[in-house]
Specification:
mainly alpha, about 75% helix, elongated
């Protein structure tokens, strides 16, 4: 009987639109930061240093290009954090996006990208909030309250 209830709860959770949204957001915020982070080492998708505001470039040691691998490592770590612990990782991604938005708003010509990243920030916060319900430890059932 317990197996039947477990399967029933699993099917119910899988059919839940909010759970589906959680899985979609978790997947996107795992894959995208890792992919973009790795690209900071190769500059295949774009010339990443152009997105670093001059005032930030003056704060970091070396050149903007030399800073990109560090940025890439942070992004990869954020993506892995979302995969492993979305309750924490989603907030890390949201904070990182907030920093990117500040950077882009102080860089002429990139306000449209900042607006897009603001939408991503809202989605990362939504993931963090959904993770409270759907990223449950193995010892606690999905419907149980803390």
């Amino acid at each position: 009987m317990a197996t039947h209830l477990t399967r029933s709860r699993t099917a119910e959770t899988a059919a839940d639109p909010a759970h589906q949204a959680f899985l979609l957001l978790r997947t996107v915020f795992t894959v995208a930061p890792i992919a973009f982070g790795l690209d900071k080492f190769a500059n295949l998708l774009t010339d990443w240093p152009q997105y670093l505001a001059p005032w930030i470039d003056r704060l970091v040691p070396g050149t903007a290009q030399q800073a990109m691998p560090v940025v890439g490592v942070v992004e990869v770590v954020a993506g892995v954090a979302v995969a492993v612990a979305p309750r924490f990782g989603a907030w890390l991604v949201a904070a990182w996006l907030a920093g990117i938005i500040v950077d882009l708003l102080t860089l002429p010509g990139y306000h449209d990208v900042a607006l897009r990243d603001a939408g991503l920030l809202v989605a990362a916060v939504a993931l963090a909030r959904l993770a409270v319900r759907y990223d449950v430890p193995a010892s606690r059932p999905a419907g149980a309250r803390r």
